[in-house]
Amino acid sequence: MACIAPSESMNNCEADQALTKNLQPVINFSSILEDEETDQYTDNVHENSYILGIKEYIANSRNLHLSKVISREKRAAVLICLFEGLEGELRVILTKRSMKLSTHPGEVALPGGKMDEEDLDDSATALREATEEIGLKSSLVQHLLTVVPVVGLLSRVEEFKPLLNADEVDAIFDVPLDMFLKEENHKCVEKEWGRLKYVCHIFEYESPKQGIFHIGGLTASILIHAASVIYQEPPSFSEYLPDFSQLQFTLNMKSSC
């Protein structure tokens, strides 16, 4: 089992980061800390353009209705826990699922899991799972939004001391959030589910002390969307397969005439 300390790998930046595009997130950690110090955090949080951007994205999401109709037995939530790195970049915490698990063993994932009866909402689910999996206290996570996925800011990363649940997590690491908008270290694979074809995005990240991790599937898709909203910029690669349905319809109409 591998574990990182926040004072080491949690705040490391990639060596070539200065050579890559400098994306600017719509999150200001300094203003967050000022709000906390002046006890105006609660009043000011809804004015933060980051919050407004996330809410606009959620409101326009084609899957918004799912959050209202899915039964508790089949609900799940994940935590996109963001923090500020040493160079001011946004980083997101990820885990490697334990090989002991019956589903998706060894895969990279966001902290999270299925909703329990005692969970009040999706935020409670995501926070509880993060506490159980990696020892992340809910008191350290701020700016929570009651959506799925749940977005949170870890403004005091130095207070987070990872404590892994060996039955669920083999490793914890963090990556720059903007990597999910870049072509570098990214590839996509075309897959099929029944008669439906879709793109599976895969990102490769090399940790200085833990080796190479592959981030793909639902986790990659969630982080692509989150990064797009927070940085107010689409990914540099095509997110979906080309839609030729309208062209096919036109061709069929012409052939039938």
From TrEMBL:
PROSITE patterns xrefs: NUDIX
Keyword set includes Manganese: yes
Pfam hit, one: NUDIX
Keywords, alphabetical: Hydrolase, Magnesium, Manganese, Metal-binding
GO cellular component: cytoplasm
UniProt cofactor(s): Mn(2+); Mg(2+)
Statement: the UniProt record of this protein carries the keyword Hydrolase: yes
Domain Nudix hydrolase: 73-196
SUPFAM superfamilies: Nudix (SSF55811)
One MF term in the entry's GO annotations: metal ion binding
GO BP terms, alphabetized: acyl-CoA metabolic process; coenzyme A biosynthetic process
Protein name as it appears in the record: Nudix hydrolase 15, mitochondrial-like isoform X2
Species per Swiss-Prot/TrEMBL record: Nicotiana tabacum (Common tobacco)
